[in-house]
Design a protein that fits this description.
4 copies of one chain form a homotetramer.
Chain A lengths: L7 E3 L6 E4 L5 E8 L16 H15 L4 H6 L6 E8 L8 E11 L3 E10 L5 E10 L12 H9 L3
Antiparallel strand pairs in A: 1-2, 2-3, 3-5, 4-7, 5-6, 6-7
């Protein structure tokens, strides 16, 4: 499998976003560095720990859209993950600076998907690509329609 | 998405395996309980932490096949994960006893896949299903043919 | 700092316990192996991940004493940690088999302490020693007297 | 146990530091927010995960002092932790913004200690206090004198 051809360029309206000049789409991004705590004995990040970076990308996207996840929850909505996937192209090593790129992929009546691409912040090399699929539920775990605020964020996501 | 119809029954030759009477295939299994350390604030296991259980299933399968992973590595072979996926059907809660079922799915010249199903050990309910795809490499990270011992374990896996 | 002189011998009445023939005290023990997930890039267990092993020791001690932690909680008692400490003597490496030894150290009106010693299961070498100090609280987080069942387990702990 | 009386004020020379107007000492600080990945089923951060925040404080202090840990290691020095301790005063909850304060405590021929205090970034409440004690070793794990660059950082730490 080959890494996607991903070439982010500055997004004119907002420094927290970039536009992929290949695919044409806008992505949110946030930076992070690898800690010892993230690595395993191979020296690189343990495969499961990438999902921590994805979580950071997702909650930062929501916060930067003006509506922190904690508030969504206060409104009675929960978004458990019911499917995820990840392709690894290159190792992410200790102390490496990374950009975590996140965007909405698809909104359906009771589910919402996020896509992620992590690049090395200095070389720009694409290190991995993944997704998470979330189900909107109420506090009792019953599937419900995606809440209006999340729909609004989705609809207002830069294009 | 619906959980697979998975009905494990004792495997006559070896207590460390079960046969799925629906799908017909043999799976290795190992038990484990959920710790506080595995959970997040929802009360259930954090989505990334399931991969720890999958790792336990995979290394225990190899060990129970007579060839611990550490020895594979001593022979100069490494099996980094380059793709994974996971479907969640039901939450795995604190202190829940689980069975981690693992089997080889496919062996190709330089890759090997494992499938996983976690069930609640008391109710038998299928909680999640996932896979990991590994690439055989030498110590320098170059793809190589899957080592003969792993091929042997694959070929001798109960059917 | 030097590792304690710890020489566990079989405890006649119950295989889940050992007696330290040096210090004279009885310890509960449970075995475990190191996973990739526990290690960091040094190849050994990341310093914070030892507390997972201590948690396993503590909950297994309680379960083996006939009263799982989940039941203590169902009775309305919570035991958050408010102090801990750890001395490392030797690295705990990937795939190493270990014995996690746990015992009650002290019971006071609203607090309870546990001591831990982890040894290499094959060589017997003492790898680390630690403690956790817990405060009994009700569900609202208010300090309360240690619950009678935990007091009973403490008083009946083998001597 | 009571939380220390810690009242950080701006440090005139550098925004990455604060001066504790009670104790009089200068501390480095870095901000962070709690993720789902950090929490356990109590809703607050799992006790072992605080050490990740301490690691972030320590490596950021070193980086901000002009000498990233990766370079120290390239010079052949490793600083494994051989003792640590932590006092918890208040829970650190999901999404809470925190300040991680770090400072050198003591430098001896072959060891170096760091102190940490985490406060809630909005309320200023002291949530926990801890320390880590590191031993200078060469790549083979033999204790050696603390490397000259680390000694320099120690000696130039703001007072």
């Amino acid at each position: 499998m080959r890494a996607p051809d991903f070439q982010p360029a500055p997004y004119e309206h907002d420094a927290r976003f970039v536009r992929d000049t290949k695919g044409g789409m806008v992505w949110h991004r946030v930076g992070q560095r690898v800690l010892f705590a993230d690595t395993d004995r191979t020296g690189a990040v343990y495969h499961a720990n990438y999902f921590r970076f994805f979580e950071l990308g997702r909650v930062t996207l929501l916060r930067d859209s003006g509506f922190p996840l904690r508030q969504v929850e206060a409104d009675g909505f929960v978004y458990p993950i019911f499917q995820l996937g990840l392709d690894y192209f290159r190792p992410l090593d200790y102390d490496d600076p990374m950009w975590i790129h996140t965007r909405f992929r698809e909104l359906r009546p009771v589910t919402i998907d996020f896509d992620y691409i992590i690049t090395h912040a200095e070389t720009g090399v694409v290190l991995c690509r993944g997704f998470t699929r979330h189900c909107a539920t109420n506090r009792k775990g019953r599937p419900v329609a995606v809440d209006p605020v999340t729909v609004g964020i989705f609809n207002n996501f830069p294009v």
